[in-house]
Design brief:
The structure is a single chain. Helix content is about 60%, strand content about 5%. It is mainly α. The chain folds into three domains: about 25-125, Orthogonal Bundle (Fumarase C, Chain B, domain 1); about 130-385, Fumarase/aspartase (Central domain) (Fumarase C, Chain A, domain 2, Up-down Bundle), CATH 1.20.200; about 400-495, Ribonucleotide Reductase Protein R1, domain 1 (Orthogonal Bundle), CATH 1.10.40.30. Helix 16 (about 405-415) packs across helix 17 (about 420-435). The relative contact order is 0.10. Arginine binds next to helix 8.
Protein backbone atom coordinates (compact mmCIF):
# COMPACT_ATOMS: atom_id res chain seq x y z
CA UNK A 1 0.00 0.00 0.00
CA UNK A 2 1.32 3.43 -0.87
CA UNK A 3 1.67 6.09 1.75
CA UNK A 4 -1.22 8.06 0.28
CA UNK A 5 -3.43 5.00 0.45
CA UNK A 6 -2.38 4.16 3.98
CA UNK A 7 -3.12 7.62 5.24
CA UNK A 8 -6.27 7.98 3.19
CA UNK A 9 -4.89 10.98 1.33
CA UNK A 10 -6.76 10.55 -1.93
CA UNK A 11 -5.85 13.12 -4.57
CA UNK A 12 -8.29 16.03 -4.50
CA UNK A 13 -11.08 15.54 -7.03
CA UNK A 14 -11.18 17.98 -9.91
CA UNK A 15 -14.46 19.83 -10.17
CA UNK A 16 -15.55 19.30 -13.69
CA UNK A 17 -14.39 15.89 -14.65
CA UNK A 18 -14.24 12.32 -13.52
CA UNK A 19 -10.55 11.47 -13.60
CA UNK A 20 -10.78 8.31 -11.61
CA UNK A 21 -13.58 6.02 -10.62
CA UNK A 22 -13.28 6.96 -6.97
CA UNK A 23 -14.50 10.38 -7.95
CA UNK A 24 -17.77 8.95 -9.23
CA UNK A 25 -18.86 8.49 -5.64
CA UNK A 26 -15.91 9.97 -3.88
CA UNK A 27 -17.12 12.04 -0.97
CA UNK A 28 -18.02 9.00 1.08
CA UNK A 29 -14.69 7.25 0.69
CA UNK A 30 -11.80 7.89 2.99
CA UNK A 31 -9.18 6.05 0.97
CA UNK A 32 -8.65 5.20 -2.67
CA UNK A 33 -8.86 1.70 -4.01
CA UNK A 34 -5.69 -0.38 -3.98
CA UNK A 35 -4.22 -1.21 -7.36
CA UNK A 36 -5.04 -4.87 -6.88
CA UNK A 37 -8.70 -4.10 -6.15
CA UNK A 38 -8.82 -1.76 -9.13
CA UNK A 39 -7.53 -4.48 -11.38
CA UNK A 40 -9.81 -7.06 -9.82
CA UNK A 41 -12.97 -5.01 -10.16
CA UNK A 42 -12.40 -3.29 -13.46
CA UNK A 43 -13.89 -4.59 -16.67
CA UNK A 44 -12.90 -1.90 -19.15
CA UNK A 45 -10.34 -4.01 -20.96
CA UNK A 46 -13.00 -6.44 -22.01
CA UNK A 47 -16.25 -4.49 -21.87
CA UNK A 48 -14.89 -1.68 -24.05
CA UNK A 49 -16.16 -3.74 -26.95
CA UNK A 50 -19.63 -2.56 -25.91
CA UNK A 51 -18.76 1.05 -26.73
CA UNK A 52 -21.05 1.41 -29.74
CA UNK A 53 -24.02 0.03 -27.84
CA UNK A 54 -23.14 2.23 -24.87
CA UNK A 55 -23.11 5.37 -27.00
CA UNK A 56 -26.29 4.37 -28.85
CA UNK A 57 -28.04 3.76 -25.51
CA UNK A 58 -26.82 7.07 -24.11
CA UNK A 59 -27.94 9.01 -27.18
CA UNK A 60 -31.40 7.45 -27.07
CA UNK A 61 -31.63 8.24 -23.34
CA UNK A 62 -30.48 11.84 -23.84
CA UNK A 63 -32.91 12.37 -26.70
CA UNK A 64 -35.76 11.21 -24.47
CA UNK A 65 -34.57 13.34 -21.52
CA UNK A 66 -34.68 16.38 -23.79
CA UNK A 67 -38.06 15.48 -25.27
CA UNK A 68 -39.45 15.13 -21.76
CA UNK A 69 -37.98 18.47 -20.71
CA UNK A 70 -35.67 16.82 -18.15
CA UNK A 71 -32.56 18.27 -19.80
CA UNK A 72 -32.37 21.27 -22.11
CA UNK A 73 -32.09 21.15 -25.90
CA UNK A 74 -28.62 22.71 -25.56
CA UNK A 75 -27.46 20.00 -23.22
CA UNK A 76 -28.83 17.41 -25.61
CA UNK A 77 -26.94 19.02 -28.50
CA UNK A 78 -23.74 19.09 -26.41
CA UNK A 79 -24.12 15.41 -25.56
CA UNK A 80 -24.60 14.58 -29.25
CA UNK A 81 -21.54 16.60 -30.19
CA UNK A 82 -19.45 15.02 -27.45
CA UNK A 83 -20.53 11.51 -28.38
CA UNK A 84 -19.70 12.16 -32.06
CA UNK A 85 -16.22 13.19 -31.03
CA UNK A 86 -15.83 10.16 -28.76
CA UNK A 87 -16.98 7.90 -31.59
CA UNK A 88 -14.30 9.25 -33.89
CA UNK A 89 -11.67 8.99 -31.17
CA UNK A 90 -12.51 5.36 -30.49
CA UNK A 91 -12.62 4.55 -34.19
CA UNK A 92 -9.26 6.23 -34.71
CA UNK A 93 -7.79 4.35 -31.77
CA UNK A 94 -6.88 7.57 -29.97
CA UNK A 95 -9.39 7.20 -27.13
CA UNK A 96 -7.59 6.59 -23.89
CA UNK A 97 -9.22 3.78 -21.95
CA UNK A 98 -8.44 4.11 -18.25
CA UNK A 99 -8.37 1.20 -15.84
CA UNK A 100 -9.04 3.74 -13.10
CA UNK A 101 -12.45 4.40 -14.61
CA UNK A 102 -13.41 0.76 -14.19
CA UNK A 103 -15.66 0.11 -17.15
CA UNK A 104 -16.77 1.23 -20.59
CA UNK A 105 -19.63 3.25 -19.13
CA UNK A 106 -17.55 5.38 -16.77
CA UNK A 107 -14.80 5.81 -19.36
CA UNK A 108 -17.16 7.21 -21.94
CA UNK A 109 -19.09 9.36 -19.46
CA UNK A 110 -15.89 10.84 -18.05
CA UNK A 111 -14.62 11.74 -21.50
CA UNK A 112 -17.98 13.24 -22.40
CA UNK A 113 -17.87 15.45 -19.33
CA UNK A 114 -14.32 16.42 -20.17
CA UNK A 115 -15.48 17.43 -23.65
CA UNK A 116 -18.83 19.11 -22.95
CA UNK A 117 -18.83 19.93 -19.23
CA UNK A 118 -22.05 19.90 -17.23
CA UNK A 119 -24.17 18.51 -20.08
CA UNK A 120 -22.09 15.35 -19.77
CA UNK A 121 -22.84 15.15 -16.08
CA UNK A 122 -26.57 15.44 -16.78
CA UNK A 123 -26.60 12.40 -19.04
CA UNK A 124 -26.81 10.05 -16.08
CA UNK A 125 -30.10 11.59 -14.89
CA UNK A 126 -32.70 8.88 -14.29
CA UNK A 127 -30.20 6.17 -15.17
CA UNK A 128 -27.86 3.80 -13.37
CA UNK A 129 -25.04 1.67 -14.66
CA UNK A 130 -27.22 -1.27 -13.73
CA UNK A 131 -29.87 -0.59 -16.35
CA UNK A 132 -27.21 0.86 -18.65
CA UNK A 133 -25.06 -2.27 -18.77
CA UNK A 134 -28.05 -4.57 -19.22
CA UNK A 135 -29.16 -2.40 -22.14
CA UNK A 136 -25.70 -2.33 -23.69
CA UNK A 137 -25.25 -6.08 -23.57
CA UNK A 138 -28.67 -6.65 -25.10
CA UNK A 139 -28.03 -4.16 -27.92
CA UNK A 140 -24.63 -5.62 -28.66
CA UNK A 141 -25.88 -9.20 -28.57
CA UNK A 142 -28.77 -8.39 -30.88
CA UNK A 143 -26.28 -7.23 -33.51
CA UNK A 144 -24.17 -10.33 -33.04
CA UNK A 145 -27.20 -12.60 -33.38
CA UNK A 146 -27.92 -10.98 -36.73
CA UNK A 147 -24.36 -11.71 -37.88
CA UNK A 148 -24.65 -15.27 -36.62
CA UNK A 149 -27.92 -15.68 -38.53
CA UNK A 150 -26.09 -14.72 -41.74
CA UNK A 151 -23.29 -17.17 -41.01
CA UNK A 152 -25.73 -19.97 -40.26
CA UNK A 153 -27.33 -19.32 -43.59
CA UNK A 154 -23.97 -19.39 -45.37
CA UNK A 155 -23.12 -22.71 -43.79
CA UNK A 156 -26.47 -24.17 -44.79
CA UNK A 157 -25.97 -22.97 -48.36
CA UNK A 158 -22.54 -24.64 -48.42
CA UNK A 159 -24.02 -27.92 -47.24
CA UNK A 160 -26.86 -27.67 -49.77
CA UNK A 161 -24.31 -26.98 -52.54
CA UNK A 162 -22.38 -30.12 -51.67
CA UNK A 163 -25.61 -32.09 -51.34
CA UNK A 164 -26.82 -30.97 -54.75
CA UNK A 165 -23.70 -32.35 -56.42
CA UNK A 166 -23.92 -35.68 -54.63
CA UNK A 167 -27.52 -36.84 -54.71
CA UNK A 168 -26.61 -40.11 -56.44
CA UNK A 169 -23.46 -40.74 -54.43
CA UNK A 170 -23.98 -43.63 -52.03
CA UNK A 171 -22.20 -44.18 -48.75
CA UNK A 172 -22.91 -46.59 -45.94
CA UNK A 173 -25.22 -45.11 -43.35
CA UNK A 174 -24.17 -46.16 -39.87
CA UNK A 175 -25.84 -46.93 -36.60
CA UNK A 176 -23.47 -47.69 -33.72
CA UNK A 177 -20.78 -46.82 -36.31
CA UNK A 178 -21.55 -50.21 -37.89
CA UNK A 179 -22.63 -50.34 -41.51
CA UNK A 180 -26.42 -50.14 -41.49
CA UNK A 181 -28.06 -49.17 -44.77
CA UNK A 182 -26.95 -47.33 -47.88
CA UNK A 183 -27.76 -43.62 -47.93
CA UNK A 184 -27.29 -40.78 -50.36
CA UNK A 185 -24.39 -38.49 -49.45
CA UNK A 186 -26.72 -35.57 -50.16
CA UNK A 187 -29.16 -36.96 -47.63
CA UNK A 188 -26.35 -37.11 -45.08
CA UNK A 189 -25.40 -33.47 -45.75
CA UNK A 190 -29.03 -32.38 -45.51
CA UNK A 191 -29.30 -33.92 -42.05
CA UNK A 192 -26.88 -31.19 -40.93
CA UNK A 193 -28.88 -28.57 -42.80
CA UNK A 194 -31.87 -29.56 -40.64
CA UNK A 195 -29.79 -29.06 -37.49
CA UNK A 196 -28.47 -25.67 -38.54
CA UNK A 197 -31.95 -24.59 -39.66
CA UNK A 198 -33.19 -25.32 -36.14
CA UNK A 199 -30.23 -23.39 -34.73
CA UNK A 200 -31.15 -20.40 -36.88
CA UNK A 201 -34.72 -20.60 -35.68
CA UNK A 202 -33.59 -20.80 -32.06
CA UNK A 203 -31.39 -17.73 -32.53
CA UNK A 204 -34.38 -15.77 -33.84
CA UNK A 205 -36.42 -16.88 -30.88
CA UNK A 206 -33.67 -15.82 -28.46
CA UNK A 207 -33.42 -12.50 -30.29
CA UNK A 208 -37.01 -11.65 -29.40
CA UNK A 209 -36.20 -11.86 -25.70
CA UNK A 210 -32.83 -10.13 -26.07
CA UNK A 211 -34.47 -7.18 -27.80
CA UNK A 212 -36.25 -5.75 -24.75
CA UNK A 213 -35.26 -2.52 -22.99
CA UNK A 214 -34.07 -2.44 -19.34
CA UNK A 215 -33.14 1.26 -19.44
CA UNK A 216 -35.36 3.40 -17.24
CA UNK A 217 -35.26 0.86 -14.43
CA UNK A 218 -32.39 2.88 -12.97
CA UNK A 219 -30.55 1.17 -10.11
CA UNK A 220 -33.37 -1.24 -9.24
CA UNK A 221 -36.63 0.50 -8.40
CA UNK A 222 -37.33 2.84 -11.30
CA UNK A 223 -36.80 6.57 -11.13
CA UNK A 224 -38.48 9.76 -10.01
CA UNK A 225 -38.07 11.50 -13.39
CA UNK A 226 -40.91 11.36 -15.91
CA UNK A 227 -39.10 9.09 -18.36
CA UNK A 228 -40.65 7.81 -21.57
CA UNK A 229 -39.19 4.35 -21.74
CA UNK A 230 -41.19 3.32 -24.78
CA UNK A 231 -39.75 6.18 -26.74
CA UNK A 232 -36.22 4.99 -25.92
CA UNK A 233 -37.15 1.44 -26.90
CA UNK A 234 -38.45 2.60 -30.26
CA UNK A 235 -35.36 4.74 -30.87
CA UNK A 236 -33.19 1.68 -30.23
CA UNK A 237 -35.28 -0.59 -32.43
CA UNK A 238 -36.46 -2.60 -29.45
CA UNK A 239 -39.85 -3.29 -30.96
CA UNK A 240 -41.97 -6.33 -31.69
CA UNK A 241 -43.13 -7.49 -35.11
CA UNK A 242 -45.90 -4.86 -35.06
CA UNK A 243 -43.56 -2.03 -34.11
CA UNK A 244 -44.71 -2.01 -30.48
CA UNK A 245 -42.08 -0.92 -27.94
CA UNK A 246 -40.50 -3.81 -26.02
CA UNK A 247 -39.72 -2.63 -22.50
CA UNK A 248 -38.82 -4.71 -19.43
CA UNK A 249 -41.86 -4.47 -17.17
CA UNK A 250 -40.26 -4.96 -13.76
CA UNK A 251 -37.32 -2.81 -12.74
CA UNK A 252 -35.86 -5.39 -10.33
CA UNK A 253 -35.95 -8.08 -12.98
CA UNK A 254 -34.74 -5.71 -15.70
CA UNK A 255 -31.43 -4.88 -14.01
CA UNK A 256 -30.67 -8.38 -12.76
CA UNK A 257 -31.95 -10.65 -15.52
CA UNK A 258 -29.33 -12.41 -17.62
CA UNK A 259 -31.65 -15.13 -18.97
CA UNK A 260 -31.17 -13.70 -22.43
CA UNK A 261 -27.41 -14.29 -22.24
CA UNK A 262 -27.88 -17.80 -20.90
CA UNK A 263 -30.46 -18.64 -23.55
CA UNK A 264 -28.16 -17.34 -26.24
CA UNK A 265 -25.24 -19.37 -24.91
CA UNK A 266 -27.45 -22.45 -24.75
CA UNK A 267 -28.47 -21.96 -28.38
CA UNK A 268 -24.81 -21.37 -29.28
CA UNK A 269 -23.77 -24.52 -27.40
CA UNK A 270 -26.26 -26.63 -29.28
CA UNK A 271 -25.12 -25.13 -32.55
CA UNK A 272 -21.51 -25.92 -31.63
CA UNK A 273 -22.56 -29.47 -30.78
CA UNK A 274 -23.92 -29.79 -34.31
CA UNK A 275 -20.69 -28.43 -35.74
CA UNK A 276 -18.78 -30.82 -33.54
CA UNK A 277 -20.72 -33.82 -34.80
CA UNK A 278 -20.03 -32.75 -38.37
CA UNK A 279 -16.38 -32.21 -37.47
CA UNK A 280 -16.16 -35.71 -36.06
CA UNK A 281 -17.56 -37.15 -39.28
CA UNK A 282 -15.15 -35.16 -41.43
CA UNK A 283 -12.27 -36.41 -39.31
CA UNK A 284 -13.38 -40.03 -39.64
CA UNK A 285 -14.15 -39.69 -43.34
CA UNK A 286 -10.76 -38.24 -44.16
CA UNK A 287 -8.85 -40.90 -42.25
CA UNK A 288 -6.93 -43.42 -44.38
CA UNK A 289 -9.31 -46.19 -43.32
CA UNK A 290 -12.29 -44.40 -44.82
CA UNK A 291 -10.90 -42.07 -47.47
CA UNK A 292 -14.41 -40.77 -48.23
CA UNK A 293 -13.49 -37.11 -48.51
CA UNK A 294 -10.65 -34.64 -48.61
CA UNK A 295 -10.67 -31.16 -47.20
CA UNK A 296 -8.57 -28.44 -48.78
CA UNK A 297 -4.97 -28.26 -47.60
CA UNK A 298 -5.44 -24.83 -46.09
CA UNK A 299 -7.60 -26.37 -43.37
CA UNK A 300 -5.03 -28.99 -42.46
CA UNK A 301 -1.57 -28.93 -40.97
CA UNK A 302 1.45 -31.15 -41.25
CA UNK A 303 3.37 -32.92 -38.56
CA UNK A 304 6.77 -31.76 -37.39
CA UNK A 305 8.03 -35.34 -37.31
CA UNK A 306 5.93 -37.42 -39.73
CA UNK A 307 6.35 -36.06 -43.25
CA UNK A 308 3.35 -37.92 -44.65
CA UNK A 309 0.79 -36.35 -42.30
CA UNK A 310 -2.07 -34.01 -43.10
CA UNK A 311 -3.99 -33.46 -39.94
CA UNK A 312 -7.58 -32.20 -39.78
CA UNK A 313 -6.76 -29.45 -37.29
CA UNK A 314 -9.70 -27.24 -38.12
CA UNK A 315 -12.41 -29.86 -37.50
CA UNK A 316 -10.53 -31.07 -34.45
CA UNK A 317 -10.32 -27.58 -33.01
CA UNK A 318 -14.02 -27.02 -33.67
CA UNK A 319 -14.73 -30.20 -31.75
CA UNK A 320 -12.50 -28.93 -28.94
CA UNK A 321 -13.93 -25.42 -28.92
CA UNK A 322 -17.39 -26.92 -28.47
CA UNK A 323 -16.29 -27.92 -24.98
CA UNK A 324 -15.27 -24.37 -24.34
CA UNK A 325 -18.64 -22.93 -25.36
CA UNK A 326 -20.56 -25.54 -23.37
CA UNK A 327 -18.29 -24.54 -20.45
CA UNK A 328 -19.39 -20.92 -20.84
CA UNK A 329 -23.01 -22.03 -20.60
CA UNK A 330 -22.22 -23.78 -17.33
CA UNK A 331 -20.33 -20.68 -16.15
CA UNK A 332 -23.22 -18.31 -16.86
CA UNK A 333 -25.91 -20.47 -15.43
CA UNK A 334 -23.87 -21.00 -12.27
CA UNK A 335 -23.17 -17.27 -12.07
CA UNK A 336 -26.88 -16.61 -11.60
CA UNK A 337 -27.93 -19.31 -9.23
CA UNK A 338 -27.10 -17.66 -5.92
CA UNK A 339 -27.91 -14.06 -6.69
CA UNK A 340 -30.55 -12.27 -4.68
CA UNK A 341 -32.44 -9.48 -6.42
CA UNK A 342 -31.48 -7.13 -7.86
CA UNK A 343 -28.15 -6.23 -9.49
CA UNK A 344 -24.99 -7.74 -8.03
CA UNK A 345 -21.46 -7.22 -9.24
CA UNK A 346 -21.33 -10.94 -10.03
CA UNK A 347 -23.06 -9.95 -13.24
CA UNK A 348 -19.93 -8.30 -14.54
CA UNK A 349 -18.65 -11.85 -14.96
CA UNK A 350 -21.25 -12.46 -17.67
CA UNK A 351 -19.21 -10.65 -20.29
CA UNK A 352 -16.12 -12.70 -20.98
CA UNK A 353 -18.01 -16.00 -21.42
CA UNK A 354 -20.61 -14.30 -23.57
CA UNK A 355 -18.02 -12.51 -25.72
CA UNK A 356 -15.96 -15.66 -26.14
CA UNK A 357 -19.06 -17.65 -27.06
CA UNK A 358 -19.92 -15.15 -29.78
CA UNK A 359 -16.35 -15.04 -31.11
CA UNK A 360 -15.93 -18.80 -31.10
CA UNK A 361 -19.28 -19.48 -32.73
CA UNK A 362 -18.80 -16.87 -35.44
CA UNK A 363 -15.30 -18.02 -36.34
CA UNK A 364 -16.36 -21.64 -36.35
CA UNK A 365 -19.41 -21.09 -38.57
CA UNK A 366 -17.39 -18.99 -40.99
CA UNK A 367 -14.59 -21.48 -41.28
CA UNK A 368 -16.97 -24.42 -41.71
CA UNK A 369 -18.99 -22.68 -44.40
CA UNK A 370 -15.77 -22.18 -46.31
CA UNK A 371 -14.26 -25.58 -45.60
CA UNK A 372 -17.40 -27.43 -46.68
CA UNK A 373 -18.58 -25.31 -49.59
CA UNK A 374 -15.41 -23.57 -50.73
CA UNK A 375 -14.60 -19.96 -51.36
CA UNK A 376 -15.92 -17.74 -54.13
CA UNK A 377 -13.42 -17.28 -56.93
CA UNK A 378 -14.23 -13.86 -58.38
CA UNK A 379 -12.60 -14.81 -61.71
CA UNK A 380 -14.95 -17.74 -62.31
CA UNK A 381 -17.89 -16.60 -60.17
CA UNK A 382 -17.89 -20.06 -58.63
CA UNK A 383 -17.08 -21.46 -55.24
CA UNK A 384 -13.88 -23.47 -55.14
CA UNK A 385 -11.93 -25.51 -52.63
CA UNK A 386 -14.73 -27.12 -50.66
CA UNK A 387 -14.66 -30.76 -49.61
CA UNK A 388 -13.78 -33.29 -52.32
CA UNK A 389 -15.97 -36.36 -52.36
CA UNK A 390 -14.49 -39.76 -53.22
CA UNK A 391 -17.65 -41.45 -54.50
CA UNK A 392 -16.01 -44.81 -55.39
CA UNK A 393 -14.55 -45.14 -51.89
CA UNK A 394 -17.96 -44.47 -50.37
CA UNK A 395 -19.64 -47.04 -52.61
CA UNK A 396 -16.96 -49.62 -51.92
CA UNK A 397 -17.52 -49.15 -48.21
CA UNK A 398 -21.28 -49.47 -48.66
CA UNK A 399 -20.72 -52.84 -50.32
CA UNK A 400 -19.11 -54.12 -47.15
CA UNK A 401 -21.18 -54.99 -44.11
CA UNK A 402 -24.36 -56.25 -45.78
CA UNK A 403 -25.98 -52.89 -46.02
CA UNK A 404 -28.88 -54.29 -48.06
CA UNK A 405 -29.87 -57.02 -45.59
CA UNK A 406 -32.97 -55.07 -44.57
CA UNK A 407 -33.94 -54.86 -48.23
CA UNK A 408 -33.87 -58.63 -48.49
CA UNK A 409 -36.08 -58.87 -45.41
CA UNK A 410 -38.49 -56.31 -46.90
CA UNK A 411 -38.48 -58.34 -50.15
CA UNK A 412 -39.60 -61.43 -48.24
CA UNK A 413 -42.27 -59.46 -46.37
CA UNK A 414 -43.68 -58.39 -49.70
CA UNK A 415 -43.86 -62.11 -50.58
CA UNK A 416 -46.05 -62.62 -47.53
CA UNK A 417 -43.60 -63.50 -44.72
CA UNK A 418 -44.13 -61.83 -41.34
CA UNK A 419 -41.31 -59.33 -40.80
CA UNK A 420 -39.82 -61.12 -37.78
CA UNK A 421 -39.53 -64.38 -39.78
CA UNK A 422 -38.03 -62.54 -42.72
CA UNK A 423 -35.51 -60.95 -40.36
CA UNK A 424 -34.46 -64.39 -39.12
CA UNK A 425 -34.22 -65.83 -42.64
CA UNK A 426 -31.96 -63.00 -43.75
CA UNK A 427 -29.74 -63.53 -40.72
CA UNK A 428 -29.03 -67.00 -42.10
CA UNK A 429 -28.30 -65.56 -45.55
CA UNK A 430 -25.88 -63.04 -44.05
CA UNK A 431 -24.14 -65.83 -42.17
CA UNK A 432 -23.73 -67.75 -45.43
CA UNK A 433 -22.39 -64.71 -47.22
CA UNK A 434 -19.91 -64.16 -44.38
CA UNK A 435 -18.72 -67.75 -44.77
CA UNK A 436 -18.27 -67.25 -48.51
CA UNK A 437 -16.66 -63.86 -47.87
CA UNK A 438 -18.98 -62.21 -50.35
CA UNK A 439 -21.81 -59.69 -50.42
CA UNK A 440 -25.46 -60.80 -50.33
CA UNK A 441 -25.81 -59.73 -53.94
CA UNK A 442 -23.02 -62.13 -54.86
CA UNK A 443 -24.76 -65.23 -53.51
CA UNK A 444 -26.05 -67.40 -56.38
CA UNK A 445 -29.83 -67.54 -56.79
CA UNK A 446 -29.90 -71.23 -55.89
CA UNK A 447 -28.19 -70.49 -52.56
CA UNK A 448 -30.63 -67.67 -51.80
CA UNK A 449 -33.56 -69.88 -52.71
CA UNK A 450 -32.25 -72.37 -50.17
CA UNK A 451 -33.20 -69.79 -47.52
CA UNK A 452 -36.63 -69.23 -48.97
CA UNK A 453 -38.25 -70.79 -52.04
CA UNK A 454 -40.09 -67.62 -53.00
CA UNK A 455 -36.88 -65.74 -53.72
CA UNK A 456 -36.65 -65.04 -57.44
CA UNK A 457 -34.28 -63.39 -59.87
CA UNK A 458 -35.68 -59.92 -59.21
CA UNK A 459 -34.14 -60.14 -55.71
CA UNK A 460 -30.87 -58.81 -57.13
CA UNK A 461 -32.53 -55.52 -57.92
CA UNK A 462 -33.28 -54.92 -54.24
CA UNK A 463 -29.90 -56.23 -53.14
CA UNK A 464 -28.09 -53.55 -55.14
CA UNK A 465 -27.11 -50.30 -53.42
CA UNK A 466 -29.03 -48.22 -55.92
CA UNK A 467 -32.13 -50.41 -55.68
CA UNK A 468 -31.98 -50.14 -51.90
CA UNK A 469 -31.67 -46.36 -52.08
CA UNK A 470 -34.48 -45.88 -54.60
CA UNK A 471 -36.78 -48.06 -52.53
CA UNK A 472 -36.68 -45.68 -49.55
CA UNK A 473 -39.03 -43.32 -51.23
CA UNK A 474 -41.04 -42.12 -48.26
CA UNK A 475 -41.16 -38.54 -47.04
CA UNK A 476 -37.82 -37.80 -45.39
CA UNK A 477 -36.25 -40.95 -46.83
CA UNK A 478 -32.97 -41.26 -48.69
CA UNK A 479 -34.32 -42.07 -52.18
CA UNK A 480 -32.88 -39.53 -54.63
CA UNK A 481 -36.42 -38.48 -55.54
CA UNK A 482 -37.07 -37.54 -51.91
CA UNK A 483 -33.68 -35.90 -51.51
CA UNK A 484 -34.43 -33.68 -54.52
CA UNK A 485 -37.70 -32.61 -52.93
CA UNK A 486 -35.81 -31.59 -49.78
CA UNK A 487 -33.10 -29.84 -51.77
CA UNK A 488 -35.73 -27.73 -53.52
CA UNK A 489 -37.36 -26.90 -50.18
CA UNK A 490 -34.07 -25.79 -48.65
CA UNK A 491 -33.09 -23.78 -51.73
CA UNK A 492 -36.38 -21.90 -51.59
CA UNK A 493 -36.05 -21.38 -47.84
CA UNK A 494 -32.47 -20.11 -48.09
CA UNK A 495 -33.01 -17.91 -51.17
N1 LIG B 1 -19.29 -2.96 -15.16
C1 LIG B 1 -20.51 -3.27 -14.51
C2 LIG B 1 -21.07 -4.59 -15.07
O1 LIG B 1 -20.56 -5.05 -15.98
C3 LIG B 1 -21.50 -2.19 -14.72
C4 LIG B 1 -22.56 -2.10 -13.69
C5 LIG B 1 -21.96 -1.73 -12.40
N2 LIG B 1 -22.93 -1.34 -11.47
C6 LIG B 1 -22.62 -1.15 -10.20
N3 LIG B 1 -23.55 -0.78 -9.43
N4 LIG B 1 -21.42 -1.38 -9.75
O2 LIG B 1 -21.98 -5.16 -14.54
Amino acid sequence: MSKAQATGNAPAPSHNQLDTKAQAWSALFSEPMSDLVKRYTSSVFFDKRLWQADIAGSLAHAEMLAAQGIISAEDHASIQRGMAQITSEIEAGSFEWKLDLEDVHLNIEARLTQLVGDAGKRLHTGRSRNDQVATDVRLWLRGEIDLIADLLKELQVSLVDVAEQNVEVILPGFTHLQVAQPVSFAHHMLAYVEMFARDAERMQDVRRRVNVLPLGSAALAGTTYPLDRERVARTLGMVDANGGAMVCQNSLDAVSDRDFAIEFTAAASLCMVHVSRLAEELIIWMSQNFGFIKIADRFTTGSSIMPQKKNPDVPELARGKTGRVVGHLMGLITLMKGQPLAYNKDNQEDKEPLFDTVDTLKDTLRIFAEMVGGQMNPATGKKEGGITVNAPAMEQAALKGYATATDLADYLVKKGLPFRDAHETVAHAVKAATTHACDLSELPLAVLQGFHPQIEKDVYECLSLRGSLNARNTLGGTAPAQVRVQLARHRARLA
